[in-house]
Amino acid sequence: MWRLAAMLLLSSVCRGSAQLLFDSPRLVEKNACNHSVLLPCSVTNMELNNIRAMFVRWKYKGKDIYTFDGFQDKVTISSDFQSASIFVPDILSGNSSLRLSDEDAVLGNYTCEVTEANREGEIIVELRYHVVSWFNPKENILIVIFPILAILLSWGQFGIVTLKYKANCPSEKTFGLIISGIILTLFVIIGAALFIPGEYSIKNASGLGLIVVPTLMLVLLQYCVFMTAFGMTSFAIAILILQLGGYILAAVGLSLCVMVCAPTQGPLLISGLAIIALAELLGLVYMKFKASNQKPPQPPRKAVEEPLNAFKESKGMMNDE
Question: Which one of 85, 121, 137, 207 is least enclosed by Cβ atoms within 10 Å?
Answer without folding.
Answer: 137
